[in-house]
């Protein structure tokens, strides 16, 4: 059975002061139903992704909140896996469709992150690390450790890290929904304020508000993008329990599963939306996904091999870095962006890579 992307919608991403969490959910859902051109009563099941609505918005029980937006109150459940919540919600919907439990499912993710202080947002995000083993750590600090190890082993330079941010901000200029529409130079990224050595402010994805929704169906529909393959894998939650800090093993395993299901090779992927929560995360991703040899991701980026018209186009949307990172929506908006590009006949085969924590969870989708 094939899984068809029947409809989709992503809201503007940014500091959306005038909208609440429920507003974002409603906008994404309404837009996806309209885009699909279906009666909303055809939706059999709803899967909701959000990392920390209780902490950010004092609102839990999101499955009930979202179900009541429909007159027929479809069965609904919330899925949480840190920053991979969106990818996991997609996976749950796909498994439900393939098992025959439902025929058409809505997957919607949202996060409203800006209605708190930066320090509190940092505390909330840090809950996705291992509290006992990494208490006091922040995600910039954890990814800085990954960057230090990668730099020591493969001579990844400051300029290579900066090249990731420069590219993604340039790509985002063509994305009207992106949080940032501003170009940066290598020097501007390299000289931005230090956050956790070697990561600087412009190496880090932002705090964002936004929502994204996709309608998946087992019904046969012509001229619509398809989910060709998916993979999901896990690794140790804390860095100290990992065998190798120069690779995210969960990404490698999830990618292998998705490639096998879709019957494609990494060199056939034309466009990839990868989880660049930090610049080092994109370098790790393009190596672990098989686009470049281990240790060569930074050099490939600096040599423009991941830009538009390069060997493989990485984060044409702007990625998490410039499109924004409303956590529950991120894994969904990656797939939505690929679907849009395929519908516009700009590309035929794309990949979405969604990560939770410092690499403990990874979900990979192939869309075509």
In short:
The chain has 368 residues and is of the alpha/beta class.
Overview of the structural elements:
- There is one protein chain.
- With 368 residues, the protein is of the alpha/beta class.
- The chain has a domain at 3-117 and 208-217: Thiolase/Chalcone synthase (Peroxisomal Thiolase, Chain A, domain 1, 3-Layer(aba) Sandwich), CATH 3.40.47.
- Helices cover 39% and strands 18% of the residues.
- The protein has a ten-stranded mixed beta sheet.
- A hairpin with a 4-residue loop joins strand 11 and strand 12.
- Helix 8 (158-172) packs across helix 11 (279-288).
- It is globular, with a radius of gyration of 19 Å.
Q: Notable features of this structure?
A:
about 375 residues; ten-stranded mixed β-sheet
Oligomeric description of these chains: single chain
Strand content: 15-25%
CATH homologous superfamily of the domain at 3-117 and 208-217?
A: Thiolase/Chalcone synthase
State the separation between the terminal residues, measured CA to CA.
Answer: 15 Å
Q: What is the CATH topology classification name of the domain at 3-117 and 208-217?
A: Peroxisomal Thiolase, Chain A, domain 1
SSE order, one letter for each helix or strand: EHEHHEHEHHHHHEEEEHEHHEHHEE
What structural class should be given to the helix and strand makeup?
A: alpha/beta
Q: What is the correct CATH architecture of the domain at 3-117 and 208-217? A: 3-Layer(aba) Sandwich
Number of H/I helices: 14
Shape call: globular
Largest sheet: 10 strands, mixed
Low-confidence stretches: none
Q: How many E-type strands?
A: 12
Strand order of the largest sheet: 3-2-4-7-1-8-12-11-9-10
What top-tier CATH class of the domain at 3-117 and 208-217 fits best? Alpha Beta
- Average pLDDT level: 98
Helix percent band: 25-40%
Query: What is the radius of gyration computed over CA atoms, rounded to a whole number of angstroms?
Result: 19 Å
């Amino acid at each position: 059975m094939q899984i068809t992307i029947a409809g989709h919608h992503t809201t503007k991403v940014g500091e959306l002061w005038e909208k609440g969490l429920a507003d974002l959910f409603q906008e994404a859902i309404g837009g996806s139903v309209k885009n699909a051109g279906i009666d909303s009563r055809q939706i059999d099941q709803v899967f909701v992704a959000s990392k920390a609505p209780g902490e950010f918005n004092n609102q839990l029980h999101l499955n009930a909140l979202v179900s009541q937006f429909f007159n027929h109150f479809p069965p609904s459940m919330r899925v949480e896996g840190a920053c991979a919540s969106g990818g996991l919600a997609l996976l749950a919907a796909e498994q439900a469709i393939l098992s025959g439990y439902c025929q058409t499912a809505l997957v919607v993710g949202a996060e409203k992150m800006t209605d708190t202080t930066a320090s509190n947002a940092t505390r909330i995000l840090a809950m996705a690390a291992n509290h006992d083993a990494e208490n006091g750590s922040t995600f910039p600090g954890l990814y800085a450790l990954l960057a230090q190890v990668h730099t020591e082993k493969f001579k990844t330079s400051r300029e290579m890290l900066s090249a990731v941010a420069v590219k993604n901000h340039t790509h985002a200029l063509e994305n009207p929904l992106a949080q940032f529409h501003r170009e940066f130079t290598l020097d501007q990224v390299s000289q931005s304020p230090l956050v956790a050595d070697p990561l600087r402010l412009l190496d880090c994805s932002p705090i964002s508000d936004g929502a994204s929704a996709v309608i998946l169906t087992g019904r046969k529909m012509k001229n619509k993008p398809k989910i060709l393959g998916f993979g999901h894998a896990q690794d140790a939650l804390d860095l100290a329990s990992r065998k190798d800090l120069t690779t995210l093993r969960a990404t490698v395993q999830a990618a292998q599963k998705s490639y096998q299901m879709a019957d494609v090779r990494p060199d056939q992927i034309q466009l990839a939306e990868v989880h660049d929560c930090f610049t080092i995360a994109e370098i790790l991703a393009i190596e672990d996904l098989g686009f470049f040899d281990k240790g060569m991701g930074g050099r490939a980026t600096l040599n423009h091999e991941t830009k538009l018209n390069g060997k493989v186009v990485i984060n044409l949307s702007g990625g998490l870095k410039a499109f924004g990172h409303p956590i529950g929506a991120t894994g969904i908006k990656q797939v939505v962006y690929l679907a849009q590009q395929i519908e516009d006949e700009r590309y035929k085969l794309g990949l979405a890579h969604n990560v939770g924590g410092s690499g403990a969870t990874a979900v990979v989708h192939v869309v075509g």
